[in-house]
Amino acid sequence: MALAPDHPSYPELGHVYPGDYCDPALYAGYVSAEQALPEGARVFDVRDYGAVPDPAVLSTEGIRRACEACRDAGGGVVLVSGGRYRSGTVRLYSHTTLFVAADSELRASRNCDDLIIRPEGTQDFGEESSGGAFILAVDAEDVTLTGGGVIHGEGEWFVHEPRRKPSFTPVDPVLLPAREEAAQINTLPGSIRTAYRERIRYAEDKYGEGKPVLRRPSALVWLLRCQGLRVENLYLRDSMCWTLHPEASDEIHIENVVIDDNRHVANTDGIDLSGCRDVTVRNCFISCADDGLCVKNPVYTHRESRNIDIAGCTVLTVMNAFKIGTGTRHDIRHVRIRDCDFRLTDICPGSVSGISIESCDGAVVEDILARDIRMAGIQCPLYILLNRRNQAGEPYDESVGSLYWGGHVRRVTIENVTAEGADLPCLMTGYADATRAGAPVRRAIEDITLRNLRLRYREAGEVLRLPETVPELLTDYPECNAHGDLPACGLNIRHADRVTLDQISVSPRSCNTRPVLFTEDVTGLRGEAYPEPTSPSAEVAP
Questions:
Q1: Nearest in space to 246 (alpha carbons), one of 150, 147, 156, 144
Q2: For residue 542, is pLDDT > 80?
């Protein structure tokens, strides 16, 4: 079988700069090199089907033959061992274990034509799912990815060069774009938002510089409409977009996985759980450029998402460490995250947010618990938002109970959280609006409990431009730093019913002029937030 060479679609790309990746010492011990093959399983070694451990050539055909032989035999182990292999899309089938041995690496082709594959049965799925994936399973059951080796996406080869190289210099003073500067929101000189966005590598022409739109896959690993998934003891590296994406799938277990992405390749989320049910995530290390642990439920899943339990994870990300949203057309219920570390202390600025909980497109987001969370170098520790972005394009309806007006965020508990080195205050908000006929519309977040939260700011200057009234974020893409400056340095709570604050303390910057707590249109508020002595955050190791 002739082996074709790997020809990158964009040979001028692929550069790596200091700060793109985290220190490998941070994830030592997560993945074992001693894992044995499953006992009694039939093994389909890709070398027996023509694959060659040489990353200069493509072994796509040999790996495909091994996967299909495993399928035709009723299941078994597809073994990748003995070196570094290069391949186009790898399709897995029911009752298959993809075992990438600890001495081996499975690398994606750098040619888009080998990876932009639209599998049958995915026509109803949206933009995020349109570009195919490197590792793919569709309508399969009992699929496992494991072995102690590496699945590598070659992410830098599918995005333009950054406008600026990674930064190790803290932003000082802290400046946010005001809401009226929407046209300049990503480019305002000196703003903390511009500081990180100019270092992101996009596939699109984000700044009107005449760059072409680059093609790229939408995921490193995409597991669509599957039942019984396990991803464990594995490195997932350098994704070209979303890294690990179970979608509309059930009974998922993810454990001892290291995600080590380029922290400046756009859209490289760590784990995206879209419309999934009965999920367990344990002891994972995630370093990426976009949302680290993300639960979403966009338009095209057509199902409720529920029963998601996350524990013992470490997340280093430029964006949001843990996020529910932004795609939220269908309901999300019963999500638990606990005993996790969120930090970004080696490159600047730090992560955009620690915990973000959003409903923007009509979903009911309820029964959410986050507890025992430690943060360092997180700009905004907590962001809870309900708005009416309406991604599905629901038609206008004068009835305020319709999906046009959004969903609900309710029964959220956040407890035992410490945040060192914050830059921005926390925000929890619903919205107020009016119908076309002028009738008032009030959509509140409900039954929110914050307990034992300690927030300490990074010492720096700040430039505040406080508006006379806090503007609503009705239909925009939600991001904590898109609201502009807020009245309080600690907690800003708006359009909310039944909020409990218990043991909340805030240590602001020495230059602070704002109160610790601001409330507007809040009913049933119990408790208070208290200032602590002003002092710079303790030094935190990367």
A1: 144
A2: no
